Amino acid sequence: MTPDLAFNTAISSSPTQRQSYSGESTLSYLVQMMGLTMHNFASAAVGIAVATALIRGFARQQANASVTSGST
């Protein structure tokens, strides 16, 4: 795959637009498998990080609310 085609594919707004290749003929099965594995791992990692941040935010908000209400 040429660098300009790879860049155009990477920045395309939807997966079906502006892709001028078929994945099976351009990328090997190993590269496709590695790409999907990385995507699945990154997706799960981001989901866990967001869930952790939300839980910490809610816990901190409740802790601050109890400290504030207890001092008056």
Rg over CA atoms, rounded to whole Å, is: 22 Å
Question: What is the terminal separation in angstroms?
Answer: 67 Å
Major beta-sheet overview: none
Given the structure, what is the number of helices? 3
Question: What do you see in this structure?
Answer:
The chain is mostly helical and 72 residues long. The protein has helices spanning 3-11, 23-26, 29-70. It starts with a helix and ends with a helix.
Structure described in brief:
It contains three helices and no strands.
Write the layout of secondary structure elements.
Layout lengths: L2 H9 L11 H4 L2 H42 L2
Keyword list:
mainly alpha, 0% strand, 72 residues, 76% helix, elongated
